[in-house]
User: What shape does this take?
Amino acid sequence: MAEDEGLVSVDYEVFGKVQGVFFRKYTQGEAKRLGLVGWVQNTSHGTVQGQIQGPTARVRELQEWLRKIGSPQSRISRAEFSNEKKIQALEHKEFQILK
Assistant: This one.
């Protein structure tokens, strides 16, 4: 199986000025544009975290977006990705903003 085939799930956390700058809303919009599912939420320590699921190539696109672009007013210092695994089926129906 090629690298860009199949479904993958990955957790993420983004550090920097990512709260109070519509980061979750923009992340949801970008994920939906790419046809991905998962979730995003603010943490109590000033970061944004979540999970992305979908075709590997599309997940890679959102990872790059989380690493370098974000919302217009955000200032990303770094993005960390963990628990990456291949999955047989999507575990979420859509991409949600969690409170």
